[in-house]
Design brief:
This protein is of the alpha/beta class. It folds into two domains: 2-72 and 381-424, Urease, subunit C, domain 1 (Roll), CATH 2.30.40; 74-364, Metal-dependent hydrolases (TIM Barrel, Alpha-Beta Barrel), CATH 3.20.20.140. The chain has helices at residues 2-11, 95-110, 113-129, 142-152, 175-188, 209-222, 234-244, 248-254, 272-280, 289-294, 302-307, 327-341, 350-364, 398-404, 432-454, and strands spanning 14-24, 32-41, 44-50, 59-72, 74-76, 132-138, 155-162, 195-201, 226-230, 262-266, 284-287, 312-314, 382-386, 411-416, 419-423, 426-427. β7 (155-162), α5 and β8 (195-201) form a beta-alpha-beta unit. The radius of gyration is 22 Å and the shape is globular. The relative contact order is 0.16. The structure holds zinc ion (ZN). Zinc ion binds next to loops.
Length: 455
């Protein structure tokens, strides 16, 4: 029996073998392998190279992808996942009115652990469908989000939000309880293969100096990741200047919050001095073009950041200000936004957008050794895009098609750590329909609440 067992192991060195027309590895910009083969053993990529016919019988499960592009799973470095339940609610208002008059009151009324569970579940389906294999989250009751992400097999980084205003998780004077909860969660997930936990002070204009200082102390002691909104609007810059006589970026720098383990979201309005601080501290940025465009916040000078070797990744922000979680839309808009901003159209290319959504995200999360490219030794987090569509034909440059033509629903295979979460555009989970029903029920209650508030 033993002999048979070991012989069968030799027959199948790969638990999954994938043959594909175009492999965009993202090992480096411009690298495409045509007629490629990827060999996967359990959760690890163990072979990448040109296809040979003998590879089929060495693969326990064989996936032959005709008319497809395979690329690394996309990485979303700024999202508020459970805000899927706010999708399309009170659109088209300026950021400050939208947040303080609409979103914060609705959150105070509705956000509970079970709300977060339904909203994050909905987000999980959306991420899998759009080929996002790893997402960050900045939303209340992160313990619920972590449970959902674990169950769904996704990779992610969840943060405990902190704010110097009353929130669904309590009053500002109760923030120490949230720090205590965070530390327990942080330690619980420290050795988890796919999930990690950090802190998320909301923004310089919504967090007191004391609160931000406390976050910096926790980060220094534990080495955890910190996510924060920064320099999103001109109003924020004026507000911080009035309060502290400095820019929001300078403010965070002086509090010790700019470093290689901090991800600053948006960073639309920065001076040359601010940019130098971001570069010097090796802080990563999360660019959210959909949200910045929709809220009229402006266009972040990403081309300039990249020129200065600042790591820029890509985010969607919450579904209330986007309104979806597709990084394909974000890549398209990121590239076009830079062309509007710069007189040099060629300074930002499709490959730059792809890099931000893969390698840039991996670096921001400290996961470059695990994900972000399809390479031997890395985790098998990958997606396949079906190109058998009119809008993706003819095809000669896969990078161009991925950024400028792909909408997201063409993704038909999503894999995380060697587990197939979606195959042939079918998600392997039974709760899909019931999640949609629960989400709509919550929305109906929210709509009634907001319309009664208007009276
Ligand atoms: Zn945000």
């Amino acid at each position: 029996m033993k002999k048979i067992k070991s012989a069968s192991k030799n027959i199948h060195p790969w638990s999954i073998g994938i043959k594909v027309n175009y492999l965009v590895t993202m090992k480096e910009k411009g690298q495409i392998i045509e007629n490629a083969f990827i060999g996967i053993h359990k959760d690890i990529i163990t072979f990448v190279g040109p296809y040979k016919p003998e590879y089929k019988k060495k693969s326990k499960k064989w996936i032959d992808l005709k008319n497809h592009i395979v690329m690394p799973g996309l990485i979303n470095t700024h999202a508020h996942l459970a805000m899927t339940l706010f999708r399309g609610l009170e659109d088209d208002l300026p950021l400050k009115n939208w947040l303080f008059d609409k979103i914060f009151p609705a959150e105070a009324q509705f956000v509970t652990p079970s709300f977060v569970e339904v909203g994050t579940q909905l987000a999980a389906y959306e991420c899998i469908r759009f080929g996002t294999t790893c997402s960050t989250d900045m939303y209340f009751y992160p313990e619920k989000g972590l449970q959902v992400w674990d169950k769904m097999g996704l990779r992610g980084h969840f943060s405990q939000p902190l704010i110097s205003f009353p929130s669904p998780e309590g009053l500002p004077e109760q923030n120490q309880l949230l720090f205590n909860k965070f530390e327990k969660l942080y330690k619980k997930y420290l050795s988890h293969p796919r999930l990690s936990v950090g802190l998320a002070p909301h923004a310089p204009y919504t967090c007191s100096t004391d609160l931000l200082t406390q976050v910096a102390q926790y980060q220094e002691r534990l080495g955890c990741l910190v996510q924060i909104h920064l320099a999103e609007t001109v109003t924020e810059g004026d507000d911080i200047k009035n309060r502290y006589q400095k820019s929001p970026t300078q403010h965070l720098y002086e509090l010790g919050l700019l470093n290689s383990k901090t991800i600053c979201a948006h960073v639309v309005h920065t001076s040359k001095a601010d940019q130098n601080l971001l570069q010097k501290t090796q802080t990563s940025l999360a660019h959210n073009p959909d949200s910045n465009f929709k809220l009229g916040s402006g266009i972040a000078p990403v081309t300039q950041y990249l020129k200065q070797n600042i790591n820029v990744s890509l985010g969607t922000d919450g579904s209330a200000s986007n309104n979806d979680l597709s990084l394909f839309g974000a890549m398209d808009l990121a590239s076009k936004g830079q062309k509007v901003l710069s007189s040099d159209i060629s300074s930002f290319k499709a490959w730059d957008a792809l890099w931000m959504a893969t390698q840039g995200g991996a670096k921001a999360l400290g996961m470059s050794h695990l994900v972000g490219s399809i390479e031997v030794g890395k985790q098998a987090d990958l997606i396949a895009i079906d190109t058998h569509f009119a809008h993706l034909t003819p095809l000669s440059d896969p990078a161009s098609h991925l950024v400028y033509c792909t909408q997201g629903l063409e993704v038909d295979l999503t894999m995380v750590a060697g587990n197939i979460l979606m195959e042939n555009k079918k998600i392997k989970s039974k709760d899909f329909s019931s999640t949609l029903i629960k989400a709509q029920k919550i929305r109906n209650q929210m709509t009634r609440f907001l319309s009664s508030n208007k009276k």
